Amino acid sequence: MDTDPPLQLRVFDLNCWAIRYLSKVRQERIGMIGDTLSQEGFDLALLQEVWSERDYCELKQKLTACYPYSHYFKSGVIGSGFCVFSRYPILDTFLYQYSLNGYPYMLQHGDWFCGKAVGLLIIKICGIIFHVYVTHLLAEYCRDKDAYLPHRVVQAWELAQFIQHTSKGADVVLLGGDLNMHPGDMGIRLLRGWTGLRDSFADADRFEGCEDGYTLVPANCFTVNKELQPFPLGIRIDYILYKGLSRFVVKCDSLVTTTGTAPGKSIPYSDHEAVIATLSVRRGEEAKGSSGSNVGPELVDVVNEARTEVRARLHAAECQRDSNGRMASLALLLLLLQAAMGLSSLVGWDTPQPFPKFSSSLLSLLATVVLLLSMGLYIFHTIEVRMLQGTEEQMRLALQDKLSSM
Amino acid sequence: MDTDPPLQLRVFDLNCWAIRYLSKVRQERIGMIGDTLSQEGFDLALLQEVWSERDYCELKQKLTACYPYSHYFKSGVIGSGFCVFSRYPILDTFLYQYSLNGYPYMLQHGDWFCGKAVGLLIIKICGIIFHVYVTHLLAEYCRDKDAYLPHRVVQAWELAQFIQHTSKGADVVLLGGDLNMHPGDMGIRLLRGWTGLRDSFADADRFEGCEDGYTLVPANCFTVNKELQPFPLGIRIDYILYKGLSRFVVKCDSLVTTTGTAPGKSIPYSDHEAVIATLSVRRGEEAKGSSGSNVGPELVDVVNEARTEVRARLHAAECQRDSNGRMASLALLLLLLQAAMGLSSLVGWDTPQPFPKFSSSLLSLLATVVLLLSMGLYIFHTIEVRMLQGTEEQMRLALQDKLSSM
Fold this sequence. Notes:
The structure is a homodimer. Chain A contains 7 helices and 13 strands. By secondary structure, chain A is an alpha+beta fold. A 7-stranded mixed β-sheet of chain A has the order 3-4-2-1-13-12-10. In chain A, strands 5-6-7-8-11-9 form a 6-stranded mixed β-sheet. Chains A and B meet through β5, α3 and α7 of A and β5, α3 and α7 of B.
């Protein structure tokens, strides 16, 4: 075992809730986040929901001296919302957009427009290669009747696969972000089981902050208490996960969360609590089982559970695709009929018009709108069906391989 | 150096041109392809443009005995079109969809609907880990005025980055597919320069087939000669590329292409020629520079050339986004005006109607269609702008790192 002193690393993770025109006291909070990052001098800050590039630029300007390296990931209509500030050089970046991300017609949630993704940054610190992943999975708006669960499970699977396939050259893997899943949820068990990532909250030598590491708490003045109703004390959905590879051992010395307000201030940084982990990395013997997952009955069970969830949504998506297809066909038929009637009256055939001209053209308007919308939805659900089928097949294949190599 | 005999591998690659209802004698050709794969017993067959899953299932049924392992990649509305047949177990698969893939309004080409992607398969052959990539990049419809060039360059860059980030655990990297680029094109230089992949045609000890390895030739009865006009002898756009990593050396013993007709038949397999490479893989000393690219002035030049192309398209996409935004606003304004007029006449205000009711409702119909279409295009171009910006930034960062590590 190496006798070098371990490398200590302080990582800050926060869902900043910085939506222009919608999030409360956004500018003041962005200013506060910038001040704290600047004063505390973390090694890495992983931020989500910085939706506006202007906010990123403001932060960047303030933090250039302390964090000379930064990156903003661009994707989707609104963007990914991720940015990272680092004291160490960022060597390369790569972005993977999740194939499924909610429904375009759920305008009130808007997830589909966000281009949810996972960003990879390769950072070299004291000769150690860190693969740092930052992500934000689909929100959970209603736990009892969670329409987004299958998509979130697909995202968790794609995240796990993306990490497994892109981290072979890493010494240390770090994942920070708002996973929108409780610690025992299927998606978290799938992600952790498949990748072998460790939970900094569960493994920390010292912990300070909200009870059970909650990152959405009623003490936060921006929290909508109704959303926390089934969990009056709070929930934990923001994580810093890690693992050491190739003879590197990572340990979580301490984990801290904010507790409703930013330290020394009257308001919080965000509607989420910040998570700050102090990790130590040292060269050691090959950590057993740390390079990947351990295939046990739990992992087999959770992959099968995920497959069941995906299959159930697949069936529903097929029904929605077909019903939109039928609706589009009907609207097209109606338009064709009206065009034929219009044409016949133009060429002077003496056919009686069944509707007055005004109603007839209103009907055309309606049919056109229905046609365009249902065609769009038909395309959307066709893609959804394919991606669900592909994911289910990939899960089956990958599990089969894991089992055969046991 | 190891004295084990080298592993010999025969790889078949073909763009099958199997579009239901559109491609000529499709069923007969799929049958022929199945027969040949079955008789020849290749180790790996990488097929593109098998758009219909039924065709894949037909092939799978025929080939189960000879190729017990196969995979069909699902993506997009129509699918990716990729399938792979293998004599050796496929351990895992992963799909990366390119962020840009043509324009939704170019219905005559339909590329946008195809979900172009790169598929990764991890295959273990005699203890050697192969990362096999199969892809199909955006077509080139008009070389002189190629509207798709910037998107194809982005795809080539994403392909190169995907290979680099996911191949660290591989012993051998293999890429097969229709890249829709001539050997000297910017995208190919970028891909090969960045990944260090070798061209089986250029490196083959023996070559047999069409002049200069062309895979689109006038002798093929399905070739539209007009499309080949600037290149009357043919073009080479289908490739098998490879490299050895981690003490494995790969050599191309021979490369064969079909020459307009399938051997012993009166018609070809497809409108593309098939490419068949015989590779030998042996353990050896660490191949210098084979694990990645060599940063030379050529690579710097080609990355900068690609950045220029991306920036030029970025400017055009910004203009298109803005003009669609203006169009949508105008249509919305018109609709609001009409609604206000309709409302005022309903509540009985004595305002004179400027248009007869029929024309007015026709105008509403038009405004609604324009609003929906221009909103859709606004969203599309907004995503395009973000992805182009992100790619340009990523190219700059990655190049900077390569240069600093020289």
